[in-house]
Amino acid sequence: MNLTPNQRIVLLELTTKWETSIQITERLPEDWRSVPSVFQSLKDLLREGLVQGNPIVPGMYRLTPKGVATKEELLGE
Predict the structure, then answer these.
(1) Which residue of 46, 52, 53, 75 shows the fewest CB atoms closer than 10 Å?
(2) What is the pLDDT along the chain (77 residues), one digit of tens a residue?
């Protein structure tokens, strides 16, 4: 999968713990801080199976096992 720069940055910030898009955004460099942009990237990553949305608490996200593997690949580049 070819990730856009925004998707890549969001994926690298995600963990396996549930977090909101605002929590993720706050950790990004200032020039990348845009909640709508992060939210769109999360939606794209959800479609690819790299991120999971919390079924009980909407608006919370975490990496899936596939997302963890992709993140490890990116970090190994």
Answers:
(1) 75
(2) 789 998 999 999 999 999 998 899 898 888 777 888 898 999 999 999 999 999 999 999 999 999 999 999 999 97
| Residue 67 DSSP SS3 | helix
For the chain, how far is it from start to end, CA to CA, in angstroms? 15
Long-range pairs of 46-50 with CB within 8 A, sequence gap ≥ 24? 48/1, 50/1, 50/11
Tokens describing residue 8: 């890549």
Instruction: Assign 61 to helix, strand or coil.
Output: strand
pTM above 0.70, yes or no: yes
